[in-house]
Amino acid sequence: MAALTVYRIKRFFWWLCLFFCLLSWTILLTFSASWLYRLDAHFLGIASQVSLSTQQLMRNYHQMLDYVLFPWVQNLQMTDFPSSFTGVQHFADVKQLVLLNYLVLLLTTPLSVYFLRRLRQQNLLWQLQGPAALMAGVPIIILFALLINFQDFFTVFHQLLFRNQDWLFDPALDPIINALPATFFLHCFLLAIGWFEIGAVTGWLIGRHALNSLA
């Protein structure tokens, strides 16, 4: 009985590792999708709302993104958008979360690759079906919350991630918020759900194919 309990704990650890690996890659791919902002800048008319050209707007967006994504970029400097102390602090908090995500990614990716290789060597890839289906269900729940009331979801999301209220930007002090409409953040969440679903469904299909191969 004790051996079975240890086995289940170990197996749960590997599935959890796989989940966080997929989640960390989803976060990185979503943050890196500057093409999404370019599309929204065009279709939402963001550039005209902040009296900048699309080229100027994208330069500022990439300056913000470089600060958040690259550990060696230590100062937030946007050409056309000044930042208040609390605004800079919020971006610093976001940067810390991104760095944490890098750590999770670096730890879970090789472990997940090792785990999947072991499953393949032992002809156990069919076991992916159940956990992958469960993972695929998580974003669906989040999607319903988004569609019901995105503003409430967005508020709760920030309250869970941040210990302060620095994310409540004053447009007069941090005009960058005018260039980051709520619709853009909604699209970011939808993109993240899409990335995660692709990964989960791919895992399920691999498991399904492995099961059919055993028949």
Q: What is the topological layout?
A:
Layout: H1 2-31, H2 34-43, H3 46-49, H4 54-69, H5 85-121, H6 129-148, H7 150-161, H8 182-214
Helix pairs in contact: 1-5, 1-8, 2-4, 4-5, 6-7, 6-8
Keywords: Membrane, Transmembrane, Transmembrane helix
Protein name: COG4478, integral membrane protein
Transmembrane segments: 12-37, 97-116, 128-150, 184-206
Question: Could you please describe the fold and organization of this structure?
Answer:
The chain has helices at residues 2-31, 34-43, 46-49, 54-69, 85-121, 129-148, 150-161, 182-214. The model has no long low-confidence stretch (mean pLDDT 92). Helices cover 75% and strands 0% of the residues. The radius of gyration is 21 Å and the shape is elongated. The protein has one domain (1-213). The chain crosses the membrane at residues 12-37, 97-116, 128-150, 184-206.
Gist?
The protein is mostly helical. The protein has helices spanning 2-31, 34-43, 46-49, 54-69, 85-121, 129-148, 150-161, 182-214.
